[in-house]
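Progress against Task 2.4 (sequence-to-structure conversion) is shown through the following example record, which the project officer requested during the mid-term review.
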Amino acid sequence: MSEKIRIRWLTNACFEIHGCGQVVLTDPCLKQTTYKGFDADSFDQVDHVVVSHLHWDHITELPDIYRKFHPCIFTGVMGADLLATWLDCNTSYIYPMFPDQELDMGPVKIKMLYNRHANVDKSKSQQTARCMGYDFMKDYPGMDALQSMGGMEMCSYLITFENGFKVLFWGGDISHSQIAHLRGLKPDVAFIQYSKQGAEAYTELANAIEPGVALPHHTDLKNALHSEIVEAKIAKLKALYKGNLICPENGQWMEFDVK
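Structure tokens generated for the chain above:
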């Protein structure tokens, strides 16, 4: 039987990736989303967690994941201490990452790629107040300190398994600098956020990256799992992008052959 990489999309920007005996999880926000039914008990194994940024909708279940599995947690160097303080964790499990730094963890290598969050058009205090205004934030004490950092520091990751299979986890602001930096990367699979810039910008970025397969993510709306708005966005993207595009189905496993 040929070796395969198994991937499923869970919520927002959360993907579960299985390869070479390792499980990598991205941005574990599981409960406070429209995609219900997932929590830390949805996993039997988590070895590595990559955190793109510290906004609540990317980390709410990270404390539960940490307590259950004690995975290696990769995050940007500027926000690493804030994250460790919020988790109140053993800091040996936190891996502060600099741009273009790659760590060889044995069966998998993880490289951080510099990125920028989309402009939220709010001051630092306004951004924090907006994030902390949700009723459920009372269940996440101390998270207010993370919200402005979430808009300032953002990371993408290139995950390379020892069998050579490469996964790009990307989200944020589609800019000239990002397109130039990622041009010709050619991962086997790329998780590319459907950003606020729309289908045209997504297509330009995906064409520059040249992935084997592109998977859009973070098209969620807080009050609707499927909506005409989301469906219209995806339809426009499918019409524009001529590469291999898979729109992942919530919670459904996908398998990819290792070449």
